[in-house]
Amino acid sequence: MTCLESNRTRLRRLTDGDLDNLLQLYGDAEVMRFTPTRVPQTRAQTEARLRSQLENQKQLNPLGVWAAESKDTDSFIGWFMILPTGRQYPELGFMIVPSQWRKGYAREIAARLMRHGTEDLGLEGYAAVTDPDNETSVRVLTALGFREVPGAPPLRHFEWTNLHVTRP
Q1: pLDDT single digits (tens) 89-113
Q2: Cα 28 vs. chain centroid, distance in angstroms?
Q3: What's the CA gap between 146 and 148, in Å, rounded?
Q4: Buried b (16+ CB within 10 A) or exposed e, 23-36
Q5: How buried is residue 126: exposed, middle or buried, by Cβ count under 10 Å (0-12/13-18/19+)?
Q6: What does the domain layout of the chain look like in residue ranges?
Q7: C-alpha–C-alpha distance, residues 118 and 102, integer Å
Q8: d(Cα 92, Cα 125) in Å, to the nearest integer?
Q9: Domain 4-161, architecture per CATH
Q10: Residue 12 class from Cβ within 10 Å (0-12 exposed, 13-18 middle, 19+ buried)?
Q11: Within 13 Å, how many C-alpha atoms sit on residue 168's CB side?
Q12: Would you say 136 and 113 are in contact if contact means Cβ atoms under 8 Å apart?
């Protein structure tokens, strides 16, 4: 199992034991308002999503989804992903539980995962999309060196390449 670390966190692959962790995200209206579904998910829906992610992980490896946890408290922070898109660059994404918002985790963990992708996996860039009203994610992506690029509405599209910015 790939385990990565940042200054304050550990990243590990999702497991069957993450259902309650994911419910903190998918069951929360504030978290879900910027997602395509826009509404909280039930336990059964979250369980189906987790099962699908676990089934797909082997074929996605070395890309995939990681659970992020605090090194100090072992508390669940959220999930972070690098997934294939069928386009030039894989997609970087993240979702953080509200109790961990505004603590700098999104930037710290995403930067670590990007470094893993570029240095260990040889990735040359990343794509990201976000809801047009999700200004917090836009700020995180901009701070990481992403540039907004044209893309299909209603989402805002971003790219990062190691050709036009220094590494985060």
Answers
A1: 999 999 999 999 999 999 999 999 9
A2: 17
A3: 7
A4: bbbbbeeebbebee
A5: buried
A6: 4-161
A7: 26
A8: 10
A9: 3-Layer(aba) Sandwich (3.40)
A10: middle
A11: 25
A12: no
Beta carbons within 8 Å of 13's beta carbon, 6+ residues apart: 1, 2, 57, 64, 65, 66, 67
Exposed/middle/buried for 90, CB within 10 Å: 0-12, 13-18, 19+?
buried
At 18, the amino acid letter reads D
* Residue 91 one-letter amino acid: E
Whole-model pTM: value is 0.91
Highest mean pLDDT of the ranges 2-6, 99-103, 161-165: 99-103
Q: Give the whole-angstrom CA distance, residue 147 versus residue 161.
A: 9
Give start and end residues of each alpha helix (H) in 76-149.
Answer: 105-115, 135-143
Q: What is the pLDDT of residues 6-56, one digit of tens each?
A: 999 999 999 999 999 999 999 999 999 998 888 999 999 999 999 999 999
